[in-house]
Structure formats: structure tokens, C-alpha cells
Amino acid sequence: MPPSDVRLRMLNISSLRISWRPPPTDHINGILKGFLINIKSNHSSVEDRNITTNERATSVTLYRLIPNASYAIRVAARTNAGVGMFFDEEPVVMSKSLFFDRFLWRR
């Protein structure tokens, strides 16, 4: 089961905070080791990245994002059995006219 209550909050034109709640312990396959955040962009100068956290993390902040670029953000739990399910979401555009605090999904 993926993390729940995933939220994206645009802090400014080039920074984005991603927060979530861990999946319930009875829905985790193995021992929770942390989370994997996958970031992809449509901008040619931006490489895809993966950020790994420890099991206590409930948020990460991305800095130096490119204004007006589109980013797809996914979060999954990591256990000793491997990486859990991701949920693909709509791309996020880092636009001054679209400052947001967006709730993405609940499971």
C-alpha cells in the first residue's frame, strides 16, 4: 500500500514541498525502511531523480526547480522486501500564476 494523504505545496516559483503519511503498519509488506520519491520533468535540462528517506520522514522539499517546467512526483514506501506501489499523478507546473497547496490522493 502506498503512502496516504500525499500533498504538494508550492513554496515559491522554484521550490516544492512534498508531504505524506506512512501506510498503516498492517498494510506494509516487511519492515518499513523509508520512502522513495521519484521526480520526472518534461524539461530537457532536468534529469529524472530519486530521493530516498528514512522511515521517520514525512516530507521533503525540492529546491532549484525550473519555473514553468512540468514535474511528475511519485512517492512509495521502501521496506526490506523492496519498493511498494507508486501512484502516478498529474504533472505539476511550477508557474507563478499557479501557486498551490494541492492534495493529491488518499488511500
TrEMBL record:
SMART domains: FN3. CDD domains: FN3 (cd00063). Signal peptide: none annotated. The keyword Repeat applies. It holds the Pfam family fn3. Residues 2-97 form the Fibronectin type-III domain. InterPro entries: FN3_dom, FN3_sf, Ig-like_fold. The keyword Repeat applies. Keywords: Repeat. This is Fibronectin type-III domain-containing protein.
